[in-house]
Design brief:
- The longest helix has 17 residues, at 178-194.
- Helices cover 27% and strands 10% of the residues.
- A 6-stranded mixed sheet has the order 1-4-3-5-2-6, with helices on both faces.
- With 260 residues, it is α/β, with parallel strands linked by helices.
């Protein structure tokens, strides 16, 4: 298993403000334009930040350079020029990594620049893919970056979405475990409670349902990839369990799309 990345030097630059706190529990340390919170006690007493004992923080590098590259991606693909990479989440997107183990899955997100092994994405920006959450085969849930920093994981929707990757799915085969399903159910409930702005839950394979919808921001009509993850079985199980949350899926998204 890959070793835990070195903690980066903490910089006391001002963190972005939003209606809901985007600060993180204690172990995440980043440097650059934005910052998470310093410690669990400080968070609880001063910010009211929501935490979960089932989430382990394992930060990927997210320096000022990676944040600048993310801002460039936002400008190129969404035509927006925000001052930082904070988002207001509206969508949860569930994925699988198509990698067999945790070490390899984590390694895919660790580089700050897109590796040469991803020529399918290289023309669309040099910032590497990233994700807010990663769920291991045994259901252990890792937070790789602050929940409301933009991650590159879903074409057209990154600026409105929190992503969850699940270890597995090699060869496009659904081998998601029962404990991964249970972990995703808990995580969806946690996020929906913490962020009332979240209205939608989709699998990565369903992302193109948003084309023509007000939340679809992609400007490049030629930038699309075909996805099958995380599979119908997985999404059906998650949706059945979280149905009381009233999160919208493909049927509701289609009804909301702009008419040409």
């Amino acid at each position: 298993m890959a070793g835990k990345p070195k903690a980066m030097q903490y910089n006391r630059a001002a963190a972005p403000r939003s209606a809901k706190s985007n600060l993180m529990p204690p172990k995440l340390t980043f440097h650059g334009r934005l910052q998470p919170c310093l410690g669990l006690l400080l968070v609880a007493l001063l910010t009211g930040c929501t935490s979960s004992p089932e989430i382990q923080d394992r930060p990927i590098p997210f320096s000022a350079s990676r944040q600048d590259a993310t801002l460039a991606y936002i400008d190129q693909h969404y035509g927006r020029q925000p001052s930082d990479i904070s988002i207001v989440p509206r969508i949860i997107v569930l994925h699988w990594t198509a990698i067999a183990d945790l070490a390899g899955s984590f390694a895919a997100f660790e580089p700050e620049q897109l590796p040469s092994s991803r020529p399918d994405l290289a023309g669309a920006g040099q910032v590497n893919v990233s994700i807010q959450f990663l769920v291991d085969r045994d259901g252990t849930t890792y937070r790789l970056m602050p929940e409301t920093w933009m991650a590159r994981h879903t074409i057209g929707l990154n600026y409105n979405a929190i992503g969850v990757e699940n270890v597995g799915g090699v060869g496009s085969v659904d081998n998601m475990t029962d404990v991964q399903i249970e972990a995703n159910i808990r995580l969806v409930r946690y996020l929906a409670k913490k962020y009332p702005s979240i209205e939608y839950l989709i699998g990565h394979s369903e992302y193109r349902e948003f084309e023509g919808h007000p939340l679809w921001l992609e400007l490049d009509d030629g930038y699309r990839t075909e996805k099958v993850d995380p599979g119908d079985r997985f999404m059906t199980a998650i949706r059945r369990a979280v149905a009381p949350l009233g999160l919208k899926g493909p049927v509701e998204i289609r009804s909301e799309r702009r008419l040409d």
